[in-house]
Amino acid sequence: MRFHPLDKLINLHDGYRRRFKIDALDILLVQQGEQRYLLEAQCPHKSHSLESAHVDERSIECPLHHYRFSLADGHVIASGEQPCRALRAYELVYEGNEVGLMLGD
């Protein structure tokens, strides 16, 4: 496993949202209030980007069809007529003054 830094802690703030691509992994780092989350960057329903999604203290809502997912673990909170799998959530890792994730090589 290897640490992949995403950003420096000093850059993070309430409302922060940034998309990262690491090989085939497409992820979105979000800070809402004091909490930070690392989620799949596209809605699993129709693969729409979540960069402009509405985020509140507990959920992220896809702007295309309004599927809503838990920030904490990605489970589906609200969906449309079509079933949708949960949004993948990843564990954040803190190393020094950076936040990132661990990936196997």
From TrEMBL:
- The answer on whether this UniProt entry bears the keyword Iron reads yes
CDD domains tied to this protein? Rieske (cd03467)
Keywords attached to this Swiss-Prot or TrEMBL record, sorted alphabetically, are: 2Fe-2S, Iron, Iron-sulfur, Metal-binding
Q: What region holds the Rieske domain?
A: 3-101
| One Pfam family of this chain | Rieske
> Which GO terms label this protein's molecular function in UniProt?
2 iron, 2 sulfur cluster binding; metal ion binding
Alphabetical list of InterPro entries matching this protein: Rieske_2Fe-2S (IPR017941), Rieske_2Fe-2S_sf (IPR036922)
Give the highest taxon in the source lineage: Bacteria
Q: What is this protein called?
A: Rieske domain-containing protein
Query: Organism, per UniProt?
Result: Parahalioglobus pacificus
